[in-house]
Amino acid sequence: MKNLTFKPLNFLYLTLVYFFVATLLFEPSVSVLAASAGAAFVLGTIFSFGDFAGTLRAIQVEIWQNHIEEEIFKNNEFLRASHNADDNVINSKVVHIPQSGGSGNVVKNRTTLPATIRKRTDTDIVYPLDEYTTDPVHIPHADTKELSYDKRQSVLSEDVAKIRQVIANWTLYNWTNSPNVGAYSASAIPVGNLVYTTGAARAGVAPGATGNRKAYTRNDLQRMQTKFMQEDRWLDGMMYCLLSPTALAEMFPADSIVTATYSQNVTEEERRKGILYKANGWNIMSRSAALVTKSDDTVAAPGEAAAATDSEASVFWYKEAVEFAFGGVEAFERLRDPEFYGDIYSFLARTGSRARRADYKGIALLREEPTA
């Protein structure tokens, strides 16, 4: 007969798992926690008569997949301030979008008849999703017996944070650099889409940069607004900018009354979407870093070696000028591995992103201006 000894750690683990699942459907509360504990006791007793580990493990994988999907957009809400191409993802691998050939001319008081008949030629945009994978992580057998939930939560949360950061970095880069895919040639944001800062000279803030750069000012927001309006890429409520922490501090100092006014313009719902301030028509967001530009005004790829001549750049865009596609998340596990004497875990996420126009209209960078 099976040993039915009560095991407090197993009971605690099951209670936490069921509580986590329940909070996906109900608001967290004491009653939900009590119900989870009851379910853990009853189902734990039932499971003791058979091998239900596979069932629990499948639930755990599903929980982690949902958790990662939520975390990818946490503190990176700017990803969804773009055209959503999720519905165009095929088999979680490629994005396929029918592309209109454009409209014809409009003539005032036409005098030449018959008018020339135009045929619209449509094309297809097809590009593969990028695949981001974490290095497999080993959880020793001893850690699965002692504090198993906390240990796994701690180790795997670090991997989730890293994959979230890498996806955000590459999305920003892809919005300013279209990759070479099939019939579509690689391209980069034109120099004409770069606007330079106008503030007082101070030390450059890009990693590895030396020398002085001009600081960011709120006047630069007005200059950016003017540029987008002149290019007919301005639509109220659809304009976003992602400022670096330095740009945010220089434009909106904490001791400024004007800063408080711009903050009050943001509703609670907008705050939940990552908007910190609203100024000059821009929905202003921020994260740990924006982009880095090289001395030739090209954008540095994530992980590219830093240089003394690099300059930081913040990103401005019209929502429909860029797109982001989410292809889903997979969580992998190999439990009770006989070679590693423990459990092995890894994660995979697929996303895609691009500028929606070949001329990059609707996207611009505010770049630090080097000074002598």
Describe the structure.
The longest helix is centred in the middle third of the chain and has 29 residues, at 148-176. It contains nine helices and 19 strands. It is of the alpha+beta class and 372 residues long. The strands form five sheets. Strands 9, 12, 13, 14, 15, 16 and 19 form a seven-stranded mixed sheet that branches. Strands 1, 5, 6, 17 and 18 form a five-stranded mixed sheet that branches. It is globular, with a radius of gyration of 26 Å. 33% of the residues lie in helices and 26% in strands. The protein has a domain at 189-324 and 359-367. Helix 1 (8-23) packs across helix 2 and helix 3 (53-73) packs parallel to helix 5.
Intertermini distance: 83 Å
Q: What quaternary form is this?
A: single chain
Radius of gyration, CA atoms, in whole angstroms: 26 Å
Given helix and strand content, the structural type is alpha+beta
Strand content: 25-35%
The number of helical elements comes to 9
Sum up the overall morphology in one term.
Answer: globular
Biggest pleated sheet: 7 strands, mixed
Number of strands: 19
- Give the % helix: 25-40%
- Low-confidence regions: 49-59
The whole-number mean of residue pLDDT values reads: 84
Can you write the helix and strand succession as a string? Answer: HHHEEEEEEHHEEEEEHEHHHEEEEEEE
Key traits:
globular, 7-stranded mixed β-sheet, 19 strands, 9 helices, 5-stranded mixed β-sheet, about 375 residues, alpha+beta
Topology:
Layout lengths: L7 H16 L6 H18 L5 H21 L9 E2 L4 E2 L3 E6 L23 E6 L1 E4 L3 E4 H5 L2 H29 E2 L8 E2 L5 E3 L4 E3 L8 E3 L3 H13 L8 E5 L1 H7 L5 H8 L3 H5 L4 E3 L2 E5 L4 E3 L17 E8 L3 E16 L4 E14 L7 E5 L5
Parallel strand pairs: 1-17, 9-19, 12-14
Antiparallel strand pairs: 2-3, 3-4, 5-18, 6-18, 7-8, 10-11, 12-16, 13-14, 15-16, 16-19, 17-18
